[in-house]
Every structure is written in C-alpha cells, then in structure tokens.
Amino acid sequence: MTLPDFIREMMSYANGQPLFKCYRGQRDARWPNIPGLFRPDLLKLAECEKRAVRDLISVHPGEFAGDQTMFDRLVRMQHFALPTRLMDVSQNPLVALYFATDPGLSGQECDGAVTAFAVPEEREKYYDSDAVSCLANLSNMTAQEKKEIIRLRQLRLKGTTKKAEIERVNDEAVYKRLHQFIRSEKPHFLPIIDPIDLFKPYYVHPKMSNRRILSQAGGFIIHGLTPPRTIKFAHPIRETQFVIPKDAKAPLRKELELIGISESTLFPELDRAANRIKTTYAS
Questions:
Q1: Residue 198: which of 173, 174, 164, 163 has the closest Cα?
Q2: Distance between CA atoms of 152 and 164, rounded to whole angstroms?
Q3: Do residues 69 and 128 touch, judged by C-beta distance below 8 A?
Q4: What is the pTM of this model?
Q5: DSSP structural state of residue 27
Q6: Deepest in the core among 5, 30, 69, 274, taking most CB within 10 A?
Q7: Which among 87, 90, 173 has a CA at the least distance from the CA of 135?
Q8: From start to end of the chain, where are the E strands?
Q9: Count of CA atoms in the C-beta half-sphere (13 A) of 275
Q10: 3-state secondary structure of 105
C-alpha cells in the first residue's frame, strides 16, 4: 500500500458515505476502538474514575482553573495522558494514518488500522450540549452510583411510556446526584434525562482552543456507561476498518512526512519540540 492507494480508498469511502465522518488510527489492528478508561488492563482506574479525576485536579488546580465544564476538564486530562471516557479521533484521515503507521517496539511489528466512523446527525454534538454534559459528569459519579444507574435501566417496566420512565428515573436519588453536577455548570438544566442517553456514544466537536486539537483536526467520541445487552440503539455510529499492512508502515510514514504530516506538525507543544531537537542533534 502506498499513500496514493490509501487516499483513493478514503476518497471512495467518503464519496459513498453521506454522514459526517471522523477517523482513528491505531498501530495494532486488533485493538478495539474504546476510550482509554475502558481498556481491559485499566479496570481498576475505571472503578476509581471519580477519585482519579479529583486527584489530578487537586495536584494541578491551576491547569484547570479556566475550564468551565466537566467536558473541558476531561479534554485537558486526555491531553496530559490520563485515560478518560473520551476517545480521540480526527476529521483528517491522513492524521489517523500517521498514528496507524506507528511501528511500535522492535520485534512487535503488527498490522495497523484506520477506522472510519460514520456519525448520524443525532449522534453529533458540540462541546456545550446537554447530552455531552450528562456523559461527561458521569466521571463525577462513584462506581456504585454508576452501577445503580445501570440497574435502574434494567428495571424498566414493559408497557411504560417513555415520558413516565423519564419521570421515574429522574426522581431517583442517583439521578438527582447527577443533576447536581450538571447544574454546577448549567444552573438552568432541566431534570429530564432520558436514561438510554447515558449509554450512547456521541461525537463531540470541541473548542478549538487547544493547539494539538487544531493541529490534528481533532475531535472526540465520548462514551457513557457500558450498555446492558438488552439495549439496541437507534442511529448507531458505524465503523469501517482499513488495515495498514505492517510492511507498508515505514514507507507510508515517510510519504506522510513529505507532505507535512509528522510529529512536528501534530504535536506542536514546546516540550515535544525540544525533545525532537535534542534527539536530532544527539543521534
């Protein structure tokens, strides 16, 4: 596979897919597309999500002083490599390809993958949407509280109207707790959370105030709670995977660098630039 081959494949996909599209690149095609918080090796972190969030803000309060919402804080935490319920994606498939061509450690070479996500309009939100506030503030809930929300969903009575179900769950103590967190950033938020919305992933257009997000044409897919098997979502986000052969990774990355897709352009922060310069002159 060459870069022109990949571009042709992406153009064919994009022309045949009318929905909004975003892309994610991973160096191992076998990895699932899930937020870092939900990785199998980080189960303890997921269990202690609330404490982890507070620990980071506690030791670096100045970094988060300007953040107005929980979503803003999660974006910053993601930037500093704390796994969150956000999954990084890009609107540029060439950026995703750069990450898919990561060679990994010597002796552990493997096929990479670029995954395209087709996002229905109902699953496309902006940083200030109520749906995003609901999912982001799940990070403020304890593991037991999140389990209670799942339990309440599973207890839904057959024949219950949607309106009655929404009224029932929003009157529960655990939902009132979630309302408190949301109202701390949106004082006029109405307590009418549809319980199924807490289990849906959404694509989020973030504020373009972060240099890395700008450089990577970045966005996020925010995940809520793990859905019970009985839930079937309308308008799902559809995934299409494009495998990048391991032998093509090095030539593809070289071609990407020739057109300006490189570590220097994707990671513009001062510390990354200083480390690149040090490596250049030390080798």
A1: 174
A2: 14
A3: yes
A4: 0.91
A5: S
A6: 69
A7: 87
A8: 20-26, 86-90, 112-119, 124-126, 202-205, 218-222, 238-244
A9: 8
A10: coil
SS3 category, 39: coil
> Residue ranges per domain, the chain?
3-282
Which are the contacts of 156, defined by CB distance < 8 A and separation ≥ 6? Answer: 165, 195
Query: What is the per-residue pLDDT for 51?
Result: 97
Give yes or no for a contact between 153 and 88, defined as CB atoms under 8 angstroms apart: no
- Chain-centroid distance, C-alpha 4: 28
Q: Which two tokens stand for residue 226?
A: 């793990």
Whole-number CA gyration radius for the chain: 20
Task: Select from 259, 1, 258 the least CA-distant residue to 112.
Answer: 1
- 193-252 pLDDT, tens digit each: 999 999 999 999 999 888 889 899 999 999 999 876 667 777 899 999 999 999 999 999
Q: Taken in order 123, 127, 131, 133, is the CA torsion positive or negative?
A: positive
- Distance, in Å, from the CA atom of 173 to the CA atom of 27, rounded to the nearest integer, reads 43
- How confident is the model over 74-91, as a mean pLDDT? 95
The pair of structure tokens assigned to 24 is 């994610």
